[in-house]
Amino acid sequence: MRDKWIVSLEDYRLASRKHLPKMISDYLEGGALDETTMRANERQLKSLMLRQRSLVDVSAISTATSVLGHSLDLPLMVSPMGMLTIFHPGSDPAVARAAVKAGSIFIHSAWAGCSLEEVAKAAPNNLWAQIAFWKDPEETRKYVNRARSAGVETLVVAGDVGSSSKRERDLHHGLSMPPRPPVADYFDAATHPGWLWRWLTGRKMTYGNYDIDGRPLRMNEMNSWMAENKNTSATWEQFAKLRSEWTGKLVIKGIMDAEDAARAVDEGADGVFVSNHGGRQFDSQPATIDVLPSIVKAVDGRSEVYLDGGIRRGHDIAKAVALGARAALAGRPFAYALASGGEPAVERAFTIFRDELKGAMGFVGKTSVDALDDSIFVKNRAPALVSASAYGNER
Ligand SMILES: Cc1cc2nc3c(=O)[nH]c(=O)nc-3n(C[C@H](O)[C@H](O)[C@H](O)COP(=O)(O)O)c2cc1C
């Protein structure tokens, strides 16, 4: 699809399929097991109907807001995604720069192809870093120190990676890192010469954040490295310890339960990030928008709350904010744009989100982000408001 025909994030999803071999686009688009949760994220957002208001002065709409004291031009940030390198060689720095230009924030993944330091240069004073608890606390401490030295002010702890996921699309492709596809997938890769050329000649396929014997960890070494270093026994104790050592802001990602949200705040979290990893980790759990109200209630204003999962329209951002999120985040849509057209496409993705958000705000008659509240919903048609209790998540 020609760039000028791209008018939505869905267009970028379709365009990215033309740029990526199927095994790579399946890795990007897919989720765990039956992908029930992945689909529910989008479906439940879409099912929330908005109230159109008439004859309201909407000549001056502002989408500006702030997160943890940091100004944003719109309540949208980029979720952490590892492996952006396999979608486009510009990868993390390209997305980080586009986020800066859009007045947003990029969260760097601990499993990125580029190092934290490289991305920090592309987005000085504008970067959050996602971390995980490794088996060896020294590894975690080293990474936290690197984040501090790189000028990162906010750490985002991934709280949902203790268990392993099963993504069947990837298993069918025999996807490993770097990709070692079965014969059919080699043909597919060959029919995407642009991707193949970049992959063969572009950046070395390594994990930018980890060294092994003084050289960057190669992608095909990740599985054994993870087996050695992954911490399946991390608990709130590690979180509390990190809180006592880290003087910057601390956010916990992967919170899907009101009790966990309350615990996170008790342990000193500045932000509770409602996320089911875009349905990539644990299938058969609710959509994020469905658990948001109960989490907002449990947090009770003691920390900020964010949400990702299925954000595909500016309208979805408005819905998340109206239900109590300080900001929404999107993952795949930015990766679709990156794969389709690099940094300019990611900039355009932000513009599309912002324009749609402004349009939605105008129709519901709200001119500022702070004014977005649950009065924007058609009450008897708002399943998310009803179903939070159905999931037993109300406190
Ligand atoms: C390709 C890909 C890689 C991801 N890698 C990470 C990661 O390294 N760390 C993490 O916390 N979440 C990761 N996620 C999950 C995202 O942070 C985010 O929660 C999810 O993509 C949000 O859903 P959405 O894609 O529907 O917007 C990844 C998601 C995708 C699509």
How would you describe the overall organization of this protein?
Helix 5 links the parallel strand 4 (106-108) and strand 5 (127-131). The chain has helices at residues 9-19, 22-29, 36-46, 91-101, 116-122, 137-149, 168-173, 183-190, 193-201, 222-229, 236-245, 258-266, 288-299, 314-322, 332-363, 383-390; strands at residues 65-67, 70-72, 76-78, 106-108, 127-131, 154-158, 206-212, 215-218, 249-255, 271-274, 304-308, 327-330. Residues 384-395 have low confidence and may be disordered. The strands form three sheets. An eight-stranded parallel sheet has the order 3-12-11-10-9-6-5-4. A two-stranded antiparallel ribbon has the order 1-2. The chain is 44% helix and 13% strand. The chain has 16 helices and twelve strands. The chain has a single domain, classed as TIM Barrel (Alpha-Beta Barrel). Flavin mononucleotide binds next to helix 15.
Provide a quick synopsis of the model.
Its cofactor is FMN. This protein is of the alpha/beta class.
The total domain count is 1
Low-confidence stretches: 384-395
Number of helices: 16
Radius of gyration: 20 Å
Please write the string of helix (H) and strand (E) elements.
HHHEEEHEHEHEHHHEEHHEHEHEHEHH
Query: Span between N and C termini?
Result: 47 Å
CATH architectural group: Alpha-Beta Barrel
Gross morphology is globular
How much strand content do the residues show? 5-15%
Tell me the CATH topology.
Answer: TIM Barrel
List ligands, each type once.
flavin mononucleotide
